[in-house]
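Tokens as discussed.
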């Protein structure tokens, strides 16, 4: 969303969202295990970047 008008259009479309599909997506992509893996990836990338900056 880049503009107020676009945000308004998106909010008006909320009633058409498939709630079951949203829940399924969250259950699959935001489990404790999945989030932990994603955080570890972020930490590793930060450490790698820092490693190259220190060289």
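Sequence:
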């Amino acid at each position: 969303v880049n503009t107020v008008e676009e945000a308004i259009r998106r909010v008006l479309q909320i009633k058409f969202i498939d709630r079951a599909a949203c829940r399924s997506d969250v259950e699959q992509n935001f489990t404790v295990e999945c989030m932990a893996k994603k955080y570890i990836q972020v930490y590793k990338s930060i450490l790698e970047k820092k490693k190259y900056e220190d060289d």
